[in-house]
Each structure stands twice: as structure tokens, then as C-alpha cells.
Write a structure and sequence with these properties.
mainly alpha; transcription regulation; 2 domains; 0% strand; single chain
Length: 194
């Protein structure tokens, strides 16, 4: 039943408020990757970032969720909580000064965090679209653009022709261009050679 509810609908927020696990799972799936990317940009440690995001979701699950009128306020809460925990983590480790110097003062303002949030959401959107590719096409795309393998090596490992690799890569690009629209322009920033 839960999976038929539009995540943008007021009913979805009500399901979260009532503590329905399926709603929480949907929320987690929707924002987990983007929040991890966002946290990693701040703490410069992907494992620690993952822990911070897990802690935020756990805290959200345990809290009274009655104060959220819509999904946008939930999302804002999640990003603000992750940002706050990341900065606390830097302070607690007593490496705040070194990290702040690395980040540069102007990067610590709201524009920096907003920029990182937008970037994280673009990455989440890209990976979401990649996950929609047919299995073989997706595997070839990831090996080529995410892992940086050469076409020849992919062809050998998958025991398929070089032409098939090129065709599948073209199919993937064509699908992603249509699926992502204007966002496709940013794909090259994250996947060199695209």
C-alpha cells in the first residue's frame, strides 16, 4: 500500500509522522546518497560521513515527527542536522582549525553549504538515472565512467565485442541525456569522458 503514495504528497508526511516503516524506508532511499555526498564534502571522510548520516536518520526516526508540514521541511531538517553533526565532528576531533583552514573561511558560509547540497542532489539524481539503465548497459557504463576502465578491458572481462561496448555506452548516454534533461550537462563533471 505504502509504495503507491506519492512521496511529495501530504499523505506521505502523515505516514512518516505515524512512524510507518515503508515511508521511512522511502525517505532513506531518496536522500541517503545525497546526504552522504554532502557530509563527505564537509568532513573529508566518507566512512565518517556515512556514520553521521545514519545517526541523523536514526535520530529522525526516534523523534516526534509531528512538526513537519511537508517533505521540504523534512529535507531541510535532514540537511541541517547533517551539517550540524559534521561541524561538531570536526570540533570534537580537535582538527577544526586544520579543516577550517583547508575549507577557507568563505566556504563556511551558507552559500558553500547550499552549493554542496545542490551538488549532492545532482549526484543523487545522476546515480538514480544510472540505476534505471538495463543491467548490461548499467554495468558497462559504471565500469567505463565510474571505475574508469578502458573499453578493451571491459570487453575482455565481459567476453563481448568492442562494438557492443561502444553501442551500450551510446545507448546509456542517449538515455541519460533524455532522462536528465538540463542536468546531463553536469554529468561530465562527475564522470570524465562522458
Amino acid at each position: 500500500m505504502m509504495y503507491n503514495i506519492d512521496i511529495q504528497s501530504p499523505e506521505f508526511v502523515k505516514c512518516l509522522e505515524r512512524g510507518e516503516r515503508e515511508a521511512f524506508q522511502r525517505l532513506f532511499e531518496m536522500y541517503h546518497k545525497a546526504l552522504c555526498f554532502f557530509a563527505t564534502r564537509i568532513v573529508r571522510d566518507s566512512l565518517e560521513a556515512e556514520d553521521i548520516v545514519q545517526d541523523v536518520f536514526l535520530a529522525f526516526w526516534r523523534m516526534d515527527r509531528g512538526g513537519f508540514p511537508n517533505l521540504k521541511t523534512v529535507k531541510t531538517f535532514l540537511y541541517n542536522s547533517v551539517q550540524h553533526r559534521c561541524l561538531n565532528y570536526l570540533r570534537d576531533l580537535e582538527i577544526r582549525d586544520r579543516n577550517y583552514r583547508n575549507l577557507k573561511r568563505e566556504e563556511l558560509d551558507e552559500d558553500y553549504f547550499l552549493c554542496q547540497q545542490i551538488r549532492a542532489e545532482v549526484v543523487a539524481e545522476l546515480f538514480g538515472a544510472i540505476d534505471e539503465l538495463p543491467d548490461k548497459c548499467k554495468e558497462i557504463f559504471k565500469r567505463s565512467y565510474v571505475d574508469g576502465q578502458e573499453d578493451k578491458k571491459i570487453a575482455e572481462e565481459l567476453d563481448i565485442s568492442l562494438n557492443t561496448i561502444k553501442t551500450q555506452k551510446q545507448r546509456a548516454k542517449s538515455y541519460l541525456r533524455g532522462r536528465l534533461g538540463d542536468l546531463f550537462v553536469y554529468a561530465g563533471m562527475f564522470f570524465p569522458g562522458l
